[in-house]
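To assess whether ligand presence alters the predicted conformation, the chain was also submitted together with guanosine-5'-monophosphate. Input:
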Amino acid sequence: MNGLLIILSGPSGVGKGTVRKVLVQDESLNLAYSISMTTRGPRNGEVEGKDYFFVTKEKFLEALQKNELLEHARFVDNYYGTPKDYVQKLREQGKNVILEIETNGAREVIEKTKGDKGVISIFIMPPSFEELRSRIEKRKTEPERIINERLEKAKKEIGIKDFYQYSVTNNTPEQCAEDIKKIIVEHLK
Ligand code: 5GP
């Protein structure tokens, strides 16, 4: 049987990555993380082929043109997309695949997979907007202009959370991962 496709979204800085890492460690869930393609440069500590496939804009547009992406989006200054074959193969192997993607791409997947009961969409909310701002600022990896654009985008993203089947709040990564686990387990029954 095909594995689930689990769409995980939430504003930049909400801690999706940390929550996802906690979830993936739980072997009982048989999860695999879908590694995206991006034109953004790597942040400190990010690894090619593990965090992202870092590509040039030309390469990205070529993949898009060849219809190799399940979805894609432009986020702030860069392109991000999900390699289609990779996700399909993992699901066929029975893996439950996590897509950690922003809302425009998520909407594209939700629309493309309408009627597929194996698709779950979950939106992660910050405890508050102020908390989100402080998390993004603490990261200190982006200049002021980018931080502000990310916060503007976050406001818009929070506004469309009702588009998702579920929303959970990230008070702590462990609690949030636990809440998501319950949702996944329910769908695996
Ligand atoms: P970041 O630059 O912080 O790694 O990612 C920026 C945003 O792009 C985050 O919300 C992240 O979840 C999202 N993102 C990462 N990969 C993809 C992807 O393949 N498709 C889409 N639509 N969004 C992605």
